[in-house]
Amino acid sequence: MASTDNSPPNGKLRLAVGSLVLGCIVLALKTLAWSLTGSVALLSDALESTVNLATAFAALVAINVASRPADQQHPFGHHKAEYFSAVLEGVMIIVAALFILHEAWGAAQAPRAMQAPFSGLAINGFATVLNGAWAFVLMRRGRALKSPALVADGKHLWTDVVTSFGVAVGVGLALVTGWWALDAAMAALVAVNILWSGWHVMSASLSGLLDEAVPEADLSRIREVIAENAIGAVEAHDLRTRHAGSATFVEFHLVVPGEMTVFDAHEICDRVEHAMHDAVPESRVTIHVEPEHKSKHSGIVVLD
Q: What CATH number should be reported for the domain whose range is 216-301?
């Protein structure tokens, strides 16, 4: 028997819309900072914000799709749509990094002094503070809501915060020393850091697309729930788990005494499912009931 739990995704959608609005504000601020200074390092920071805006929109679309209930064409739901958003974000990060490297190379060939650097740095600094605060919110709430798209968006924003700080340091050093090639060098470092971030975002999302099992700590908790709540059964074996967006799929075989009625076996399954939903929010549990002669004498021993 199988169970489902389709809770409304309002919290995810609000966060995704918030990312889109903040992305527009930060992009405008960083573009203004670059236009005031002509700094290629600040240009690289602004370019990364265009990626933030595009991926915020992709996350909004993905979360909306993932929230749709299962249908005839998608009987297991649309949960994996969020992983595609995270993969797209990784691809866009890499494209932006390559463009920044191209601009940095051109600036290194012909270094030039910046205009109004202090005003530009102040505006860029304010945008960085906004990004940092929102990145913290996205990562914390994204993990709580089990949303790969929101977590990936938060991690990317935090990378943007780190690189913005590095940009400020590089531009400051260029001002103090008069060595304007530092501006291009910092832009190149930003690009390398962005590439590293893009790789991590993509690799984490690909593991979800490949139906990777839940972490060992979660797996231990799932085993405990089965052992403590399947009272009356003999054992549970062939446990399989996987993540798909915010959903956690749990499947296993439950061995019951041969003389047990269907009603009693069903009661055990209901008890296990309810306990699993409490321990693992948004879990989808599938239990295959077997008679005692199917016992493998391995797997999960049910507590007396």
A: 3.30.70.1350
